[in-house]
Amino acid sequence: MKEKYDVLETIEQGDYLNQYKVKLKNTDELKIMKIINKNMIINTLGEDYYKNVFLKSFENMEICGKNNINSVQLFEYSNAENEFICVMELVDEDLGKFLGKRDQGLNPQEILGILKQLNNTFKIMVDNLIVHRDLKLENIFIKYNNNEKSDYTIKLGYYEVSTRLNSLDQKMNLMIGTMGNMAPEMILKKEYDRKCDLWSLGLLIYTLFFKEPPNITVGANFQQPLKTSGNELLDDLLNKLLKSDPENRITWKQYFEHPFFK
């Protein structure tokens, strides 16, 4: 598969991952190629994880990107003997870097615009029982549509720890993702369901507005001192997403139907 591409630039190089900006030969098509050390995954996390989480996560990425511009496109991948190779859509930057350029956080209208684009992907995820398990600023990407960077497309990416459930009420117990963005039930090593993504989404939205995550302590005496944005609908959405008990947390259906999106 590698022979089809010309390497233009090395983006990242390490023991686990090499990442390159590449061009499809005889065309002007620019893409990203990731070459992942397959043996390192297997030796660290086990062959069962490699087959049932890592490999299947790319199937999830294909599902979410089909006929949908708001997910990073996966063009092809190869499960070779010692390495896993995938070629994906080239994006401009992640949402964390985009936010970092702002002196203040984003206003509710800007957040609404970003979420409406992401919801196109979230609805596909929900319909296909896919749980992302690592929703955060760094895993959401921007592709600019003009030189002025005034128009952009939001794309969900990094599905490598995602999973696809067999039923609506299926529980999970694998503690995986980014610690600071995990739902309380995951951190406390309890069984969890797909509502874990809604918690992470609440943290993400909060950070978009305040440019910092909420001051939340997870433990026996859970405390939730949230700042208020001044926008009644946004504050209501955040409070319903950031419920420590998943039984009290908003559902995906309630999220999509929340008045903030009206």
Describe the secondary-structure layout.
Layout (H helix, E strand, L loop, with lengths): L4 E9 L3 E8 L5 E8 H8 L1 H19 L8 E6 L3 E7 L3 E2 H6 L7 H20 L2 E2 L8 E5 L7 E5 L6 E2 L19 H4 L8 H15 L21 H10 L10 H5 L6
Antiparallel strand pairs: 1-2, 2-3, 3-5, 4-5, 6-8, 7-10, 8-9
Helix pairs in contact: 1-2, 2-4, 6-7
Order of helices and strands: EEEHHEEEHHEEEEHHHH
The beta-strand count equals 10
Q: Using the alpha-carbon principal axes, give the shape.
A: globular
Helix/strand-derived category reads alpha+beta
Overall radius of gyration: 19 Å
Largest sheet: 5 strands, antiparallel
Helical fraction equals: 25-40%
The mean pLDDT is: 93
Characterization of this structure:
With 262 residues, the protein is an alpha+beta fold. The protein is built from 8 helices and 10 strands. Strand 4 (74-79) and strand 5 form a beta hairpin. Helix 1 crosses helix 2, helix 2 (47-65) crosses helix 4 (108-127) and helix 6 packs antiparallel against helix 7 (232-241). It is globular, with a radius of gyration of 19 Å. The chain starts with a strand and ends in a 6-residue tail after the last helix. 29% of the residues are buried.
Summarize the structure.
This protein has 262 residues and is an alpha+beta fold.
List keywords for this structure.
globular, 5-stranded antiparallel sheet, 262 residues, 10 strands, 3-stranded antiparallel sheet, alpha+beta
